[in-house]
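Researcher: Good morning. I'm working through a list of sequences from a screen, and I'd like to move beyond sequence-only analysis. For each chain I'm collecting a predicted structure so we can compare shapes side by side. This is the next one on the list. No need for commentary yet; just the structure.
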Amino acid sequence: MTPLRYLHLDVFAATLGGGNHLGVVIGADGWSAEAMQRFARWTALVETTFLLPPTDPKASYRVRIFTPYKEIPFAGHPSIGSAHAALECGLTQPRDGLLWQECGAGVLPIRVEGHGASRELLLQSPGERVLDTGRDAHPLLPAALAGIDLAGLPPALVDGGRRWWLAEMASEASLRAWQPDHAAIGALAHASDSMGLCTFARSQTNDRQLTVRAFPAGVGIVEDPASGAANGLIAAYIAHAEPEGSLAHGYHVSQGREIGHDARLVVQIDGNTIWVGGHSHTVIDGTLSWVNPE
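Model: Good morning. Structure tokens for this chain:
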């Protein structure tokens, strides 16, 4: 048995321990999908990724992303964390300031800004579509929105690698105080084949312009501390609806404080191109002793 390298990361953290957990396995080139799923089920993390040699000549590396229950083609914080791990382990170097990640959603660019502890990685979202808008866009949507003081943009179902319902609330205070009906959100998620509901509110502070809460009941998570893909969809919706607005070129996001985390995400908007990312921290860097059954 050859020990493999294993990193446990804190992704999108504004303060240590504030972000989203990610486990990254390096060197499992010979593992089957079943073996990867078995290990991801054991870690019980929201996602575990496996860094592999690319099959596309354009790509810097290849990543496979697993929840405890299934492999998924794309997710935000696993992509950013895997890029961080690839750099930390010397598997690749940026080309013209970019890494190219091969995953189930294709070969996606990741922008590398800065070095060392100040480095930020930003993923280009794989394309977004607004599928429907309005409080009556789905029969189960009103129940999922119960207690929300809606304002600004109308609720919307947006697709882009992951599918989310989005709803803007009137104030950051009302967003942070809101007590969601998780069963209603789960029913909506399963009926619409979506991740769930992501709510946001505009903020007037120096360190953030948007506050976000995400409830991915469609994959069995009550509340997510840091949601890269969901924030990409919010950014695309804002850019589409308010091309001349104050957030049209980018902003900073706070997420996760309601569940004891403290995540900070960076959004950059270049016309129709959305970049979402932030910092990642390596918390554990060690070796993995794991024997897969024959």
